[in-house]
Amino acid sequence: MAYQQHTGIFKIPQLTSEQEQEYLHLGEDSFQSLLERVLNTPNIPWQAEDQYDGVSIFEEKHEPHHLSYRMISKINATIEELARIHDFSSPANCKCYVSEYATDIINMETLHSFIERTKERPFRQAYLKWNAIRSPVPMIFCHRDFVYVETQDEFELNSGLRGWAFAQRSIKAPFAPKLYDFGYARGELLDTGCVYLETEIPGVLDVIYCLRINFNGSMPSWARRIGLRARARGLDLMNDRVHRLRLCSQHLRSPESCDCKTTTNSCFICQKLQHFKHKHCQSCGKVVCAGCSRTWKLHGTEDTEENLQFVCVCIACSLAIRGRTTSDPDRVTQRSSSAHLIPTMKEVLVERPNSFEMMNTITTAELATLQESNELNDEPSLGLDLSYVEVYRSRRR
Length: 397
Description:
With about 400 residues, this protein is an alpha+beta fold. About 25% of the residues lie in helices and about 30% in strands. It contains eight helices and 15 strands. Strand 6 and strand 7 form a beta hairpin. The longest helix has 23 residues, at about 15-40. Mean pLDDT is about 75; it is low at about 1-5 and about 325-395. InterPro entries: Rab4/Rab5_effector, START-like_dom_sf.
């Protein structure tokens, strides 16, 4: 269902059916290119660039002004939850995403939504979008804006595990002139996107974010590093974003109902006596201290400021909610003992127009570095393991 953006910057014409099909075809080509680049052939030499908040950043040798980076992380989430977060079918959803989920985005508008999101088909989406990215150093470098087609879809591995991805490719749109007067330099997205892959651990996904961009202007490495860290921080915060969605679906107590049940002034987790005003977990109702709880800013179902509320949840309830998963355990398959060796793989893609040889793009040495740096308390090692990625099949919605 399409809608017009109301900023007054662009005047969006009514697209013809031929134009819609052209954009949909462009988006599908971008989606395929992203998956083929992430999961398959080119044996690209990636160089470890940085490590920030649990996100590993790799850089590919690139041409001047054409930058190529890859970020790798883990997330406690399901494909269904990620699809909901990336629902840009309304202006309210775009506004919520920018304010809550993307610290480096100044503004985002969906200019045209090609496919209506439904419960039966929640994963296949295609948008014509505009957004403005904050400059890492605004006093020196201009902000960048982009006009692009974004395609989202689910795909399936031959192991039975699923994946979900979105791909973005810039277009030349005569109805969206460059906004130099507003302080923006028009950049170009070259099949930028993110791939989420189910793992053998239910509710835990591999995250591979690919940034291929042409800034259409110079930007030194130190400035790029600042921008990359801002984007990496966004990936790291995705766990909090998913956690907020899960908290919104919980039946939480009101502060008043918690106060009337108070029989002790000691934190039930650390047992420290709370001499001053104590807090209550609005999930279990027990007394907690500030160190054993966290206040969450939650939105209602419509993600509007009117539905904004602040709730206190203890770490015990948070861990229980974070560990919840809607994944089907029967879909999880066991890997062989040699699966963790990350051998070079050569397979053929199925249900795609062309065939490509599969090769792993992360070296064993880089994998070892990831495994050392991505440990999370007492949980299993979260080092990247994509050995189960042999072939994929894009589901047609």
